[in-house]
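User: Hi! Is it possible to get a structure for several chains at once, not just one? Here's what I have:
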Amino acid sequence: MNTTSDVLRVLGALATIVVGAIHLQQYADFISDVPTIGVLFLLNGLGAGVLAIMLATRAASLAAAGAIALSAGSLVSIAISMTENGLFDYVEPDFRAPVVIAVVAEVAAIVLLSACLVARRRPASAKGARTDWSTG
Amino acid sequence: MVVVSTSLKSSLNRVVAVLGAVLVVATVVVFVAFRGSDDGAAGAQQAAAPAEAVDKVQIKDFKYLPAAITVAVGTTITWTNGDTAPHTATSGKSPSPDGVFDTDTFAKGEMKTVKVSKPGTFEYYCELHPFMQATVIVK
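Assistant: Yes, the chains can be modeled jointly so their relative placement is included. Here is the combined structure:
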């Protein structure tokens, strides 16, 4: 495990937590009353929490892939909800602040965790000999 | 060069794990809390189902309350949006408005009025959230 992938993993985990927290906040605000979408928001929050925990364990690669899928799915869902027919009859009328924060966090999670996975696949020879974190 | 020790790395892992655990617990707590409130909302809607002789409709938690109202010809009906999300009250059945009335989009706290000028039973819905449906009976 190298320094770069660890930094990317932690930042990606934090972005994933933000994604889940925003979905949970929106669920508590009003989305809980929207059929189907409400349940999906709740599952997003739960899934993001579980994946964040997994990102702190040895199953980080699997968790990173899962978190990327979660964020990508959320992004696609937002895009569909902004079309005329919406997603499960729910139309997102504009870029409200929570939507903007969610999109930024989702893009950040995808970029950071994708880079983390790439960094983890680097050949062993490219990794530093030391096992601690170094920046400079 | 700044060296970040393995103990700090472990600490960051713990922070991530704790934040993730907090999110999981918060999700469960919110689910339990809102599951209870949903039951109450469903009960309120069921109680409001019969057509009532009122000319004011509240929008709350993605529901028109009451879901059915009865008014006289010439009555001005007022919709008040008590939700965070914007809504409309558009006559017809989604996705086909029939053109009898349409409030257009109105935001939280805003009111829209429509004067009904002919008798009949008019179903209406929210164009932004078509699962929201209700009825106006004009006599």
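Confidence is low (pLDDT under 50) at residues 38-48 of chain B. Strands of chain B lie at 2-4, 56-60, 63-65, 68-71, 76-81, 90-93, 96-102, 111-115, 120-125, 133-138.

User: Great, thank you!
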